[in-house]
């Protein structure tokens, strides 16, 4: 044999029949055979019938194991890419159809982005063939986030939910779409299944909505206009329940109407607390939005990511401004401190209207950088003398 194979060949004593007692050296050499046969590198040449049979068994086992592993991996990769390849084929077909119809390139790009976001889901047609009882159970599981997230669904019976579920439908909206206008009655309850939307009140940023956030519940429970404007930031998918369908359900279940009216009165006794959220709720919502962006940022086009970053930055600035206003209102102001000290001489604060220039006096310094605070009248005072400060001399001033 070649010199490179000499170290792999066992001594002659191991090939003789008297030495077939399978000692430690034979087991070590068998392990070497296994590794060489599976890896395919420098398999030693067998010299006896037993060695030939053992080598054939190891080589055959290696081929079977290798074929099984490669086949399993190939099947898994094919199953993962089958759906994407099918969607890609459909998108190419639609794009070629639009090209033949001479559709503008920008419009073709938007159509492609929509199908990339929404996909070619044919599960609705396939699930429609299921029995009614099984389909209702499946709908309850698929829409469980809606029932867990929307508070007033916790106050209704299961029978009401079973009748309501088939009336909920899916609606896709393009970015920049006005979903709800301030002061206008909403068309129904909207729960955001995918995407991002912004909420503005009087033109100012209030909050940003993301997955499982909802709005429009006031229109379902009471005839009240919407307290805020909702506009989509990216492509969005909503689960919608129309007001007309909900009213028909309440006619069938009048006891549910009374329960929801009590809930609505308790919740909306003041302004909508969900839109006029507290500072802590604002930071919580901002953290939720950022986590959702990190999870789904690879699914948005570059222009969508830019719009999303711009709106989230505006939301963060609004929260910061709200924090500064809350801090300013909670701390004692400059004028509040000075009003407690009559005739107090203080440095000029041109932005404070409560500070007036002091009276001129011959001995007073001519500089106008000092001002005297006008004391406020005390509501408990009974005589004018108690509210008017006594005249001061230059020495007392």
Automatic annotation (TrEMBL):
Taxonomic superkingdom: Eukaryota
CDD domains the UniProt entry points to: CAP_ED
Keywords annotated in UniProt: Ion channel, Ion transport, Ligand-gated ion channel, Membrane, Transmembrane, Transmembrane helix, Transport
Regions of compositional bias (Low complexity) in chain numbering: 374-397
Domain (Cyclic nucleotide-binding): residue spans on this chain: 152-267
Transmembrane segments: 26-45, 52-71
Composition-biased stretches (Polar residues): 349-362
MF terms (GO), sorted A to Z: intracellularly cyclic nucleotide-activated monoatomic cation channel activity; protein-containing complex binding
Protein name per UniProt: Cyclic nucleotide-binding domain-containing protein
């Amino acid at each position: 044999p070649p010199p490179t194979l000499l170290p792999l060949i066992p001594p002659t004593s191991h090939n003789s029949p008297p030495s077939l007692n399978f000692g430690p050296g034979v087991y070590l050499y068998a392990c070497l055979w296994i590794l060489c046969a599976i890896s395919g590198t420098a398999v030693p040449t067998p010299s006896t019938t037993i060695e030939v049979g053992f080598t054939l068994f190891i080589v055959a086992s290696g081929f079977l194991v290798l074929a099984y592993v490669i086949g399993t991996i190939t099947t898994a990769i094919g199953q993962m890419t089958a759906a994407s390849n099918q969607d890609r084929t459909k998108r190419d077909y639609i794009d070629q159809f639009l090209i033949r119809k001479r559709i503008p390139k920008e419009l073709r790009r938007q159509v492609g982005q929509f199908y990339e976001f929404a996909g070619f889901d044919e599960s609705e047609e396939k699930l429609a063939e299921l029995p009614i009882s099984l389909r209702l159970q499946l709908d309850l599981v698929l829409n469980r986030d809606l029932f867990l997230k929307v508070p007033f669904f916790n106050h209704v019976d299961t029978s009401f939910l079973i009748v309501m579920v088939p009336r909920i439908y899916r609606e896709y909206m393009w970015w920049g779409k006005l979903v709800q206008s301030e002061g206008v009655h909403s068309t129904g309850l909207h729960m955001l299944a995918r995407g991002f939307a912004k909420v503005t009140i009087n033109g100012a940023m209030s909050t940003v909505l993301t997955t499982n956030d909802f709005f429009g519940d006031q229109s379902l429970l009471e005839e009240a206009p919407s307290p805020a404007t909702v506009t989509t930031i990216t492509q969005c998918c909503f689960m919608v329940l129309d007001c007309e369908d909900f009213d028909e359900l309440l006619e069938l279940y009048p006891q549910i109407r009374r329960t929801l009216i009590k809930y609505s009165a308790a919740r909306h006794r003041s302004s909508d607390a969900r839109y006029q959220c507290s500072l802590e709720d604002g930071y919580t919502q901002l953290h939720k939005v950022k986590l959702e962006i990190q999870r789904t940022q690879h699914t948005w086009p570059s222009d969508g990511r830019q719009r999303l970053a711009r709106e989230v930055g505006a939301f963060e600035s609004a929260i910061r401004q709200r924090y500064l206003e809350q801090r300013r209102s909670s701390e004692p102001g400059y004028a509040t401190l000075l009003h407690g000290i009559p005739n107090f001489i203080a440095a000029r604060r041109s932005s404070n209207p409560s500070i007036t220039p002091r009276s001129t006096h011959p001995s007073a310094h001519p500089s106008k950088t000092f001002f005297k605070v006008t004391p406020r009248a005390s509501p408990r005072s009974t005589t004018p003398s108690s509210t008017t400060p006594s005249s001061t001399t230059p020495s007392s001033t």
